[in-house]
Amino acid sequence: MNSALFLSEWERMWKRKITWLFLIAMPAVVAATAKYYAGHNRGISPASAEYTWAGNFPVMALIEQLIVVFNVMSLILLTLSVTEEYRSGQIRMVMLRSFTAGQLLRAKWLAHMAVMALYFTVYLLLSVAAGLLFFEPHEHIQLFYHDHTVPLKGMIGYTLLYYGLAFLSVLAIGSVFMAAAVISRTTTGAVGLGLGFLLCSLGFPLIYELANRVGGLGLPAMLKYLSLTEIQYSGIAVMLGQAQAVSSEAAALTALLVGLGYAAVFGVGSLLVFSKSDRWM
Fold first, then answer.
1. Where are the domains of the chain?
2. What sections of the protein cross the membrane (predicted)?
3. Left (φ > 0), alpha (ψ -120 to 50) or beta: where does 145 sit?
4. What is the DSSP letter of 242?
């Protein structure tokens, strides 16, 4: 990987106002999420996994915003990085230099990964601060898919693992967005394809479970994790769960294979299409 090309793409990302706007908007997103959970707590028992304390607010805040906010940020940034630059001719200027299409696409992807990693880090730090500011501390916290409460110290490792898996899930969906950006000739088309994928991914678990129940098909429940958004919605919590009634190992294996499958198919597909010599004529 050419470091100069990566730095060039990194700088290009931060020259866009939208990249800074997403970063600047994060405190407002965290504050709005804290306000929502503070109101939600009034109707929830403190013994419930849905109850928000200072210690679990960073995870609860990510659960609330992961599917929409982080996925949409990824979609818009990738669309601007690939489709918009193609439409405006900026990519052609880079291709005139001594870089291959494959090197350019990899640099764009790595720069995108770095920006999203920064967003996750900032969101985590802001959520920790908001949790301490707006919610009461508690020594033992009940988590989803846990038979027993987790001590406050244990929440540190749990939170870091949750954010790490959430980051990987956004990258898996990002590989689909990258493919949409590569094949689209307009930003509207790329965003439309990306949003269409998100809607299909959101709808698949509902249709699958309905067909499985009504039709009596008896298919494994884990197949709902063919949906990447379902992995984000419940799969991460199941993977980190410690309950006898939950098969955490099966969920982790399914999510891993599905995520790798999406990344391989759409990542390789993007590279092949992007590398076509006649695309830049």
1. 3-280
2. 20-39, 59-83, 109-135, 155-183, 190-208, 250-274
3. left
4. B
Q: What is the pLDDT of residue 281?
A: 46
Contact in structure between 139 and 152 (CB atoms under 8 Å) = yes
CB 6 within 8 A of CB 110: yes
Position of tokens 């098969």? Answer: 247
Question: What is the pLDDT averaged over residues 9-20?
Answer: 94
Note the pTM of the prediction, 2 decimals: 0.93
Question: Does residue 181 contact residue 273 with C-beta atoms inside 8 Å?
Answer: no
Q: Are 248 and 242 in contact (CB under 8 A)?
A: yes
Maximal CA-CA distance, the chain: 63
Tell me the C-alpha distance between 104 and 5, whole Å.
7
Residues in the chain: 281
Q: How many CB atoms lie within 10 A of CB 211?
A: 12
Q: What is the residue type of 121?
A: T
Residues above pLDDT 70, as percent of the chain: 94
Least-confidence region, from 107-121, 138-152, 158-172, 233-247:
233-247
Tell me how crowded residue 2 is: count the other CB atoms within 10 A of its CB: 14
Per-residue pLDDT at 277 exceeds 60 = no
